[in-house]
Amino acid sequence: MRNKSNIKIIILALGIFIAVVGITNYSIFNDQDGTVENRGKSSLKIPKISEFWPNCPPIHIQNDNWSATPLPWIQIGLGTEINPHIIENLTINGRGAGNGIFIENSNDYFIVRNCTIYNCSIGIRLDNTNYGTLTNNNCSNNNDGIGLNNNCHNNTISENFASNNSQYGIYLENCNNNLISENILDHNQVGIFFLENCMFNTILRNTVNTSEFAGIMIVFDGDNNLISENFVSNNSQYGILLDGNNNLISENFVSNNSQYGIYLDGNNNLVSENFVSNNGEDGIYLYGNDNLVSENFVSNNGEYGILASGSINVISGNTIIDNGIHGILAYGTINVISGNTIINNGDSGIYLTGIFTSFNVISENFICENHYGINLYQYAINNDIFENFIYYNTNGAIYIYSTDTYDNEIIRNVLVSKNDTFVVYDGDINDISVYLNYELRSPPRLNVTIINQLFSMTEFNIIINVFSEVRIDFSIETIQILWNDILVPSKNITKIGKWLYNLSLTPIFVNMGEEPILLNITISAFGYETSFFETYIAVDPDTLEKGIVQDGDEFLFLILITALISTAGGIGATIITIGILRKRKPTKEVI
Q1: Which are the contacts of 545, defined by CB distance < 8 A and separation ≥ 6?
Q2: Taking CA 364 as the corner, what is the angle to CA 363 and CA 366, rounded to the nearest 5 degrees?
Q3: How many alpha carbons lie under 13 Å from residue 458 in its C-beta half-sphere?
Q4: What does pTM read for this prediction?
Q5: Does the pLDDT of residue 286 top 80, yes or no?
C-alpha cells in the first residue's frame, strides 16, 4: 500500500537528517571545565567564562552587530562555529514588557547559557536567526519562555527550564531544522508549540508536564518532524497534538493526559513504539489517511485504545489492553488492522461502525477476554475478517448487528469459547458470510514431528516441524530444548524454514545395553496451548566409526523409539523411527 513506501521514505529522510545534524551541528557544553566537545571532527575553543551579572537590562542584538554597544556580559567572538559569541550567567527582569534577550537577522554562531530571564513578553527570542545554541537557561514566568520566529534554522535549544509561562514554554513559527532536546517544560499553556510550516525539526527527550492545553502541539503544516523519547504527562487536554504529514512519533511516554494521549490529524505519519497509558479518553486518536500505527503499548485509557478514522491506514503489531470501552474503534475505508494483541478491554476488542466503514482487512489479531472479540455494528460493509485468534471473550467471539451490515466475509478465524457462544447475530442476517472458522472449547495445540536426523562424531542435527491443528500461521515465542537434562543454548536452535527448526546437539553416544538419551522440547506460541515433546535417542559410536557388514551387503538397522507428546489434556505415545545406516566402510554421518 502507498503509505508503506511513503513511510520508508519518511524514515530514510529523517534518518539522514538526524545523522547530518548529529555530525555538523550538535555540541555538548561542559560548564565545569570550560571545554566543548564537538560531535564533528574537531573540538571547539571556548572563551573565558564570564562573571555573574544579577541585574542586567534586556539585550537586543541585530544584523550580527554584536560589538555595536560593548557590554561586559557579552563575550565577542568571531561568530564562527569554533569561536562563537557568548552570553551567559545573566539575570534579566523584563518588568512586564519586551523580550529578555532578542537576537534577530543573525547568521553568526552564538551561545546563550546559564541565564535566568523572567517577567518578559518572551524570555529569549530569535527572529530570522541561525546557528544559535540556547542551553541551561531558566525562562519561567514570562508570556513565552523561548520563541523562534520567521526562518530560524539550525538552532539548538537544549537543557532549558521553562515553567509557568502564560502561553508557551518553547514555540517555533516558520522555522526548520532545529533541535529541541532535554528541556523541562512545566505548567505552561502549551509546553512545545509549532505554528505554521515548521518542518524537519527534532523534539527529543524533553519532559513536558501539566500544560493547560497540550504538552506538544504542532499545527498548520507541521511536516517531516521527529518527536521521539519525550515524557509527556498530566497535560489538561492533549499529550501530543499533531496536524501535519510525514512525521515520526516514536518511543514517547504519554500518560495521564486529561483527554487524548496522541491526537494525529494528517497523512503519511508513523506512530511507533510509544507507551500510551491512563489518558482520560483515547490513547491514540488517528484522523487522516496513509498513516502507520505500529508496535505501540496502549493501556488503561478511559475510552478507546486506538480510535481510527480515515482511509488506507495500517494499525499493526500494537498491544492494546485494559482500555475502558473498545481496544480499537475503526470507521473508514481500506484500512488494515493486523497482528495486534487486544486483551481485556471494557467492550469490544475491535469495533467497526459507521456509514463509510468498508473494505477493511482485519487479520491475524489476538483478541482475548473482552466483552466481544470483534463487533460489526451498523453500516459495516464489505470487510474481510480472517485468521484472527479470538479467545474467551465474555459474550461471544464475533458480534454482528445485521441492520445495514452486509457483505462481510468472516473466514478461517480461530474462535475459542468457554461456552457455546461463538458468533452472535442481532437482527436478520443480511449477506454475511461466516464459514471455515475453527470453533474450539480450549486453545489449539501445536504439534511436533521429527522430519530429518543427521548424526556424526562431532554433532547431532535434528530437524523438527512445528505445526498447528488449525493450520493458521502463528509466531513461536520460545523453543526450549533439554538434551540429557541440560539446556541447549538458543544459538543451537535455528529456524531454517516456515515452521522448520534445526536442533544442533552435543553428541552423546550409547553403547549396547545402555539407556537411550532423553530429548525434551517445550514450544510456546502466543494463543496456543504450550506443547511438550519428549523422545529418546540412541546412537552407537561403533556404527559411525567402523560400519557393519552382513554377507557383503549394506543394510539398514532400525531402532524404534517411543516418543511421548504431553499437553495439558494428557499424554499420548507415538513411534519415531531412527535409521542408522551401517556401511562396509567407516562413515562420519549416518541418517
Answers
A1: 457, 586
A2: 120
A3: 2
A4: 0.79
A5: yes
